[in-house]
């Protein structure tokens, strides 16, 4: 699996849980990954844009055969304000990723999800946002 270590580039796409203009937008990403004994660690960077999170994040997870599962953690909590712009707030953002490794194409792809706590009428609810992602080895 150490052959998989290195730089991976691709994108993520905003999906359900996002309104326009975010829904369907793609953000270019770069992962610096290290694979050892089925464990996956690394860092993530996003190309700056009006739709990206301007922060470096950490990656921690595993790969088993073709199944890939990891979380990305950012040391800030981005939200979309009433003007439709990303606003960075104190906190931590955790993005869960589940997907597959395609050996032939040297790509990893799948679904990402964010569970967003929300308070509606003084009751705690969990809202989910999701989208797709794809990275290929450089």
UniProtKB/TrEMBL annotation:
What is the name attached to this protein's record?
Lipocalin-like domain-containing protein
User: Species lineage, top-down?
Assistant: Bacteria, Pseudomonadati, Bacteroidota, Flavobacteriia, Flavobacteriales
């Amino acid at each position: 699996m150490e052959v998989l270590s290195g730089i991976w580039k691709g994108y993520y796409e905003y999906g359900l849980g996002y309104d326009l203009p975010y829904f369907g937008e793609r953000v270019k990403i770069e992962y610096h990954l290290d694979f050892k004994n089925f464990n996956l660690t690394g860092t993530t960077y996003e190309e700056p844009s009006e739709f990206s999170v301007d922060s470096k994040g950490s990656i921690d997870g595993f790969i088993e055969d073709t199944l890939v599962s990891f979380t990305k953690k950012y040391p800030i909590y981005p939200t979309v304000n009433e003007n439709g712009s990303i606003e960075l707030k104190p906190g931590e953002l955790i993005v869960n990723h589940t997907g597959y490794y395609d050996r032939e194409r040297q790509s990893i792809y799948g679904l990402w999800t964010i569970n967003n706590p929300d308070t509606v009428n003084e009751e705690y609810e969990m809202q989910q946002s999701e989208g797709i992602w794809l990275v290929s080895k450089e």
